[in-house]
Write the structure tokens for this entry.
Amino acid sequence: MEVRINDTYEEMSAAAAEFVIRQLRHKPNSVIGLAAGGTPCLLYQLLGDACAAGEVDFAQVRTFSLDEYIGLGADHPQSYRYFMEKRLFSRVNLAAAHIAAPDGMAADIAAECARYGAAIEAAGGIDLMILGIGPNAHIGFNEPGPCFVPDTHVVELSEATRTANARFFARPEDTPHWAISMGVRDIMLAQNILLLSSGAGKTEALYQAVCGDITPEAPASVLQLHRNALVLADRAAASRLPEKYV
Ligand code: F6R
């Protein structure tokens, strides 16, 4: 695991955009896994800007969203599919047929999880997985627990995660209780992983991810075992990391 610290959120996002653009130039038909949430917003904006400026081409890129709330459709403003449409897909030249996301409205959620995992595999796996990290060190919606769940699965969101994500909903009680998430194996099979972490609210989670024991109680800690995991953090998130990183 490599860790790079930037002074600010803006610098971290610019470094992330540069990393993604380099990946797409190196492999124009890359398969990318995409986190939603607050952290990657500026990264996606910068990718949109770079595409508009002709600096990067998404024509052959394929994407897989990391997760989705159960019960929210693609047209629901708080669904992750809607988020990705607004923040990235509508701003780059990505083919509609190259966009994949778990269907939170599927009638048979277990079958949907199996379908989604198989679709990732059929695409040849993920070349670059873009992750955020929850304040409880979750990645995707792999919540802290007694074991890692390998495959795409249904998750009951923890109260910590519901509280953290309530800011996106009109009323806190609207925050869904359930989600579909790629599993830890889906994530760890990616060729490259880029984890973004910003702000003081992530300090403890980032410490656990980088320096803590590798344990499903801090799911991001598993990334220490990945061959090509890059952590980009701003100074606020990195404030507990040991001297050698800062
Ligand atoms: C979202 C996702 C989550 C978020 C995490 C951090 O698709 O998979 O793991 O990355 O909850 O969210 P923010 O960036 O809003 O702090």
In short: The mean pLDDT is 97. Residues 9-26 form the longest helix (18 residues).
